Amino acid sequence: MLKWMMALKSLLVVSAIATAGGHYRRPPPRRSLAASLSKQLAGVDPTSPQQVHVSLSDGNEMRMRISWITSAPSPSIVFYSTANNNTLLSANGTTTRYSYLILYRSGYIHHVTVGPLNADAIYYYRCGSISARQYIFKTPPSQYPIKFAITGDLGQTEWTRSTLRHIEKSDYDVLLLAGDLSYADFYQPWWDTFGQLVQPLASSRAWMVSQGNHEVERIPFIHPEAFTSYNARWLMPYKECASSSNLYYSFQVSGIVHVLMLGSYAGFRPGSGQYSWLQDDLEKVDRSKTPWLIAVIHAPWYNSNEAHQGEYESVGMKIAMEDLLYRARVDAIFAGHVHAYERFVRVYRDKADECGPVHITVGDGGNREGLAKRFMEANISAFREASFGHGQLWVINATHALWTWHRNDDEDDNVAVASDQFWLTKLSRCSP
Question: Among residues 17, 19, 160, 371, which one has the fewest Cβ atoms lying within 10 Å of its Cβ?
Fold first, then answer.
């Protein structure tokens, strides 16, 4: 009831912000947290669960995958129960490890799927042992409204911590991360520190992630396999949706929103595994039952920033797949990669089109490389600002969703400024 009251209030007062504040002072980069996080990891009990995160394991029933890492061998088992049920349930899973060059051997990576679960419910759980530390996660609701937190290019800096602090206050149901997670860039211990940094949030709500260029970590002839750490640590429900790769998959939230997590750095041309899977996946979506269809990529298809212009992962993927998503009437496409915020009007083939998706870039989560501050002229760009922040998509009902981009205020980290806001409205005459 409270969510509905807040949504009604927003509906009455919201208006889209067309331009950024002219006197806003853009913030400078902030220091990396990796070194301090490494020191904290040094004294951890080797069998204690670390880097705990949960994700949706999509299927006919609501299930969650719980992932964590231990330094020493430990059972891949989770004990869990609801807040109002003393019955203790358990589930077993798998354990894996990986090596990177000759310098790094990962800890023991555990993945356990629990469920079926109740919607909009709080669960208490312990990883590896009934005496281990207790965590809490909440499942998404089974009906409207549903709130997504959306970000990209997080990294692990003081700005990352600021973004995570604001996301935590948003009372979101599911987080979507548009690639570039840890910025480990071959130095594998930074994957461990990133997992530690996001654990407070990622252990309590479903985090659904996609890969970016910083996840590739391929070294020709020396380490030819790409995405080794990403695939081992951040296992997503690709098998559940008949995908052949962890780099692209889809899932549904409450049967209301169908989310495509597409791989900018996987094959995407017609005839590729991803292209064929996407065709099949889109055909399965019944828009009469699942009104909302959104996509997440890393390299944006539309970008008026001077950064990352003309890259194959952007231009080539757009040429290959834009028609598919347009015909399917995808509502919005979220991207990262460019370290700034930008929202476009509904667009298709480089022109405003009322039946096209809204493209939004949120590659401003907090990376160490800083902001991309230089923009070019673009009449299809509705709002843009080079600031760190995150977005929230509040799906209110079958026809309206409220999008808000929250800038991290550089004067007071306790304040997230709603710098851009607009209503995403279903267009009935553009139904697929």
Answer: 19
The DSSP result for 159-207, as a single string, is HHHHHHHHHHTT--SEEEE-S--S--TT-THHHHHHHHHHHHHHTTSEE
Q: What is the pLDDT of residues 223-247, one digit of tens each?
A: 999 999 999 999 999 999 999 999 9
Q: Please, which pLDDT band fits residue 364 given cuts at 50, 70 and 90?
A: very high
The whole-angstrom separation of Cα 303 and Cα 386 is: 13
167 φ/ψ angles, rounded to the nearest 5 degrees: -60, -40
Task: Kindly calculate the radius of gyration of the chain based on its CA atoms and give it in whole angstroms.
Answer: 21
Three-state DSSP class for 263?
Answer: coil
How many other CB atoms sit within 10 Å of the CB of residue 98? 16
Question: Exactly one of 53, 214, 308, 339 is catalytic; which is it?
Answer: 308
The DSSP symbol for 157 reads B
Q: How far apart are CA 75 and CA 204, in angstroms?
A: 21
**To which residue do tokens 């090596």 refer?**
99
Summarised one tens digit per residue, pLDDT across range 141-163 is 999 999 999 999 999 999 999 99
Let me know: does 113 contact 57? Beta carbons within 8 Å. yes
Q: pLDDT tens digits for 341-355?
A: 999 999 999 999 999
DSSP one-letter code for 409:
P
Q: In this structure, what DSSP letter does residue 430 have? A: G
- Positive or negative CA dihedral for 353, 354, 356, 359? positive
- The angle subtended at Cα 330 by Cα 232 and Cα 390, nearest 5°, is 60
CA gap 141, 118 in Å, rounded: 9
- The phi, psi pair for 322, rounded to 5°, reads -60, -40
Q: Are 38 and 189 in contact (CB under 8 A)?
A: yes
Say how far apart CA 165 and CA 231 lie, in whole Å: 27
Q: What share of the chain is helix, strand, coil (3-state, %, to 5)?
A: 20, 30, 50
Phi and psi at 336, nearest 5°, equal -120, -135
Which helix (DSSP H) or strand (DSSP E) does residue 311 occupy? none
Instruction: Provide the total of helices (H) and of strands (E) in the chain, helices listed first.
Output: 7, 24
Q: Is 406 a catalytic residue?
A: no
Closest CA to 157 of 394, 315, 364: 364
Q: What is the value of pTM for the model shown? A: 0.92
